[in-house]
Amino acid sequence: MKKLMVIGALGLMLAGCGMEEESVDNASAAEQEVQELEVEVLTEAKGETGEWTLEAYVSQGSEAVNDADEVKFEVFEAGKKDDSVKTDYTDVKDGVYSVKHTFQQDGVYYFIPHVTARGLHTMPTQQVLVGDVTAEEIQAAEEAMAEAKAQMMDNKESGMEGMKESEGTKDGMENSEGHSGH
């Protein structure tokens, strides 16, 4: 009987230790949860031609990120993405990355900070109105950007469908091979 009680007590102690280790493992897993990389465009959305300071604030959780792997600022006039200009940042302070850029003519532009930091990548887009721009120009720019985004999404989806179809073909071949001898 004493042996049984000793074995039972040892079992309870071991179970208690196992539960303690499990709760420590759960806490460290929660601490290691990846927090989203956030990029906030600080550049004004409207202004005059001339030199501008393009700025983006980069953070993860409540921490400013000053050690990004890459920050490139892309600027292009609406409808002219192929003529975009990408420039590396020239300054960073308290998570704010910046570079000087000159807008030489009126128009609707897009500013995209491409940020890679801590294994994550994000690239928000901001429309920038420079000088005198009509409502029609703004609307045309927004429609062109929406169309470009939709086309990009269609391309991604068709690529995924192509992968699924090729997987289905592979499965189909395996199934037909499996049935060919019967």
UniProtKB/TrEMBL annotation:
Segments for region (Disordered): 153-182
Domain of life from the UniProt record: Bacteria
Q: Where is the YtkA-like domain?
A: 32-113
Q: Name the PROSITE patterns on file.
A: PROKAR_LIPOPROTEIN
Extent of Basic and acidic residues compositional bias? 154-182
Q: Which Pfam families match?
A: YtkA
Under InterPro entries, the record lists: Ig-like_fold (IPR013783), YtkA-like_dom (IPR032693)
The name of this protein is YtkA-like domain-containing protein
Protein source organism: Planococcus koreensis
